[in-house]
Amino acid sequence: MTAPKKLFIKTYGCQMNVYDSERMAEALAGYEQTNAPEEADMILLNTCHIREKAAEKVYSELGRYKGLKADKPDLKIGVAGCVAQAEGAEIMRRQPMVDLVVGPQSYHRLPEMEARTQTGEKALDTDFPEEDKFERLKSRPKASRGPTAFLTVQEGCDKFCAFCVVPYTRGAEVSRPAARILDEARDLVERGVREITLLGQNVNAYHGAGPDGSDYTLARLIWDLDKVDGLERIRFTTSHPNDMTDDLIEAHGTCSKLMPYLHLPVQSGSDRILKRMNRSHTAESYLRLIERIRAARPDILMSGDFIVGFPEETEADFQATLDLVEAVQYGYAYSFKYSSRPGTPAAERAEVDAAEADDRLQRLQALITRQQRSIQESMVGRTVNVLFEKPGRLEGQMVGKSEYLHAVHVADPTLKTGEIAPIRIVSSGANSLAGTRA
Ligand code: SAH
Ligand code: SF4
Ligand code: F3S
């Protein structure tokens, strides 16, 4: 028997890329994964195109592998993900050592593409094929794994926010049939998973076929997952405010496996800017929505995304964003400086002065950090349920996540990976909480 070849995958971008990287590693059956690029027979970069910096990282990373390829001519180098989709053959023009370029909708064709590279051919596939890639991307049976997992239920986006590349790189919104998702969830649970995060670029727009063939909603899917024995926790991300249906809001109040955490990006607090972003919600409608969600689940921890320095954003627009953040009180929030992306409508517009945008980003991040800290500190003295994921850095310490997604450290060697235990929080650090068994 020949030793299996080695595959090194580096993943950038969102959680869907993390999920996709797992599936690609499983699809390349002749390979086993390595953490060391210098040992690899194939290097695969799973890339992100969301901001300019993210996309440029790919080329600097490829530059680093030039020497490896010179020493080992059989080494194959592949680019997957959203940069592959957006730039296609251009990647091979800029970096001729790249052997393979595969877009997110063609991952099921990867084994066949890899075989072609073995004969010295270049392989490029950025189609949006008709066939269901998930059906063809079978997982390797029964390999055990950690207690948390991602599961893609929906992919692509039809919203076309004026700044965003996702509708172009991931394509139109597609939902997987509920029965397939339930099978995959059961398989994950058999392999040791206790918490599943359902993924989609617009996960709450999920409308896959239900078991009886009718269109399902995300809430109905969650209720079916709720019945899977051994699955203890359900999360989902990322949602759009316009797709928060009544049944999903209600599920947050009534489904005990659905965790009290909701990532609901708003992008801006200014209606003028929201309109220019093509977001089709207002600051007011977003705040009303959160009121309804909190009425269903008062302790829910809210999270969001913001863009500052969108074209034409004035100081008054930015102030409206700060006001919205004050009104919501986020447990977590992610903020980004606007980055012009080729091919998107906003790329045509005049940009805000870079120093001004930097200054706004700093002010927003300072406010968000204060909110995050104070919500984290409010956990001290409370008892939360923690799902333990792995040993901590200190001897005898375990780390896990509370219902609210806070990282919690506990010094207790009797705790096991995969265990859910009530923990009394005793202190709050910069990015995590510490506690003891309640
Ligand atoms: N709905 C998607 C959003 C993906 S992008 C999801 O599944 O997560 C994540 C965040 O990146 C967006 O919410 C937005 O805040 C930010 N973003 C997107 N395009 C951007 C751009 N051109 N410049 C800066 N930030 C951007
Ligand atoms: Fe991008 Fe907007 Fe779609 Fe989110 S909803 S993926 S920000 S276009
Ligand atoms: Fe990036 Fe594509 Fe995800 S652009 S954020 S990897 S959908």
Describe, in plain words, how this protein is organized in 3D.
The protein is an alpha/beta fold. Helix content is 34%, strand content 22%. The strands form 5 sheets. It has a 6-stranded parallel β-sheet with strand order 2-1-3-4-5-6, sandwiched between helices. Strands 15-16-17-19-18 form a 5-stranded mixed barrel. A 3-stranded parallel β-sheet has the order 7-10-11, sandwiched between helices. Helix 11 (246-254) runs parallel beside helix 13 (283-296). The termini are far apart. Bound molecules: S-adenosyl-L-homocysteine (SAH), iron/sulfur cluster and FE3-S4 cluster. Iron/sulfur cluster is lined by residues 157, 159-161, 164, 166-167, 201-202, 240.
